[in-house]
């Protein structure tokens, strides 16, 4: 399956960063959960570039949206376990 620009998918687009919740395998919308305010964006005064920083977990806003769910909890947990095992080596 080609990526959104017609090219091959990059590994990080699929794997993402587990702690940051990025990437296809970490997208909580697939289990019917939307997370708002996960990241804060600040401008680096030296480079004038925008930098993202993760907000503390207590600042995240989680909304359950069951109509978005496309996978069950069992599959989600298997993916999370596989990610953990892969990370452990």
N-C termini distance: 28 Å
Quote the beta fraction. Answer: 15-25%
How many helices? The count is 2
Question: Mind describing the biggest β-sheet?
Answer: 2 strands, antiparallel
Radius of gyration: 16 Å
Strand neighbour order, sheet with most strands: 1-4
List the helices and strands and how they pair.
Layout: H1 11-15, E1 33-36, E2 39-43, E3 50-54, E4 61-64, H2 73-88
Antiparallel strand pairs: 1-4, 2-3
Structural account:
Helix content is 24%, strand content 20%. It is α+β, with helices and mostly antiparallel strands. The chain has a two-stranded antiparallel ribbon with strand order 1-4. The chain has a two-stranded antiparallel ribbon with strand order 2-3. A hairpin with a 6-residue loop joins strand 2 (39-43) and strand 3 (50-54). The relative contact order is 0.16.
Summarize the structure.
With 89 residues, this protein is of the alpha+beta class.
List keywords for this structure.
4 strands, alpha+beta, two-stranded antiparallel sheet, 89 residues, globular
